[in-house]
Amino acid sequence: MRLSLCTITFRHHLISLDEIAAFARTNGFDGVELWGMHARSLEHRTDRDGDWLAGLGLNVPMLSDYLPLEADPVELRRRMFALIRLARRWQARKIRTFAGCKGSAATSEDERRLIATRLRELSALAEDHGLSLLAETHPNTIADCGASTLRLIEEVGHDAFGINFDTLHVWEGGDDPVAFHRTIRPHVRHYHFKNIRARSDLAVFEPANVYSPAGRREGMTRLFEGTVDYQPFLEEISGDDTVEASLEWFGADCMEVLRHDRRVLAETAAPGLRLRAG
Fold it and tell me: What are the Xylose isomerase-like TIM barrel domain coordinates in residue numbering (predicted)?
């Protein structure tokens, strides 16, 4: 497994990409999943790109952003081409977005048809540039539960379209992560790992809270100290060297938690789950 950290972790920190990359390299991470906001803020830094990271032994497996699928089609294509340019600059192979902004039960058939059509069109654009487009399993989108996510894959129906499998959000949606993963595995291109103290704390992951500098962080836990049991899931993917995953941490003590979780993953997570020595 190749493991990255997410630069969104440092969304409220006065820290440079140089420092993040140095931390990732020192602590055995393979790469950095680059948040779209951060990628855009670095456009003026022509000396920072995929070649620069490769020189540090790192890569950008995925550029994570939020495409406005319900927007004017001209604006949507403009946003997609901007992300494609950024992905190519950083040598990322995947672009992550969300499948709409409402849960599956609250989305009408017409709205759902529009989202699937737009994702199919954007997937074709991604494929033209050697990229994949991924929708994340996430609440308040139409990929909020197993049945709706599988339906979305069928509706989009494009080889360049895949899933970013967020294990906690799959569990949040009411599915068993191991069982659902066995069903959806051919379509999974990336994984997000994070955990929570209890189901009653899930509101801490709502976007408005996550993006607020004053948001609540209580309830966020280290990967192996939360209510979601990662051991069976990691055993499910162990031995698969094609797996690419990111530790997604939104709480305090960023570097300490990332360092700790990466070390525990390498040492005790699952037989056959191989990470490079850090």
Answer: 22-259
